Amino acid sequence: MKILEAQSATLTNYEVYQHLTEQRSRYAKKGIKGRRPGNLETVVKELLEYFHEAPSPLASKPLPYNDQTIGILLERLRPFNFTKAEILMIMNLRPTKAESLNTIVEEMDDRFTDDQQYEIVGIIAEVLGTADGSAERQAMNDQAEVLKNQRLDPKMEVEG
């Protein structure tokens, strides 16, 4: 495999997720096992696990995105003149507060009034949905507990 043109397109986490799940189902239907690169299944498995962990929007059930979501979001946010990178981060992180949006948008306070910031957050919530806070907190607590147990378990240490 050869890269013809580096960075020719950027993909959202949703687009990567869709591609990986479709690829996995194609392989399963065809019964293809031995011809895939050795690390492919590991990478796919780890990426899908990452996407299914809170606070990722893709961890929400039902899935908040569909094939039209990106187009709808682009259309609704067009008047605010976001950069491609900012739109990509909004899609991937789904900020639900102006404070969270501030970490994504360059010079947000200079570019947008408080009312515009709340309008943007409202559009994001309307198009991408909002996170189930209790489910996210529980998932994050579960992850913290697993990490804590791994640190405490001497069998889990890696030998050098």
Protein model, in words:
The structure is a single chain. This protein has 160 residues and is mainly α. It folds into two domains: 13-31 and 41-62 and 133-156, no CATH class; 69-128, RNA Polymerase II, Rpb4 subunit (Growth Hormone, Chain: A, Up-down Bundle), CATH 1.20.1250.40. It has helices at residues 13-30, 40-51, 69-77, 84-93, 98-102, 108-111, 114-128, 133-152. α3 runs antiparallel to α7. The model has no long low-confidence stretch (mean pLDDT 80).
Provide the number of structural domains: 2
Taking the alpha carbons of the first and last residues, their distance comes to 34 Å
Specify the helix fraction band: 55-70%
Q: How many DSSP-defined strands?
A: 0
Percent of residues in beta strands: under 5%
Radius of gyration from the alpha-carbon trace, in angstroms: 19 Å
Question: How many distinct helices?
Answer: 8
- Poorly predicted regions: none
Q: Which structural category do the helix and sheet elements fall into?
A: mainly alpha
Secondary-structure element order, N to C: HHHHHHHH
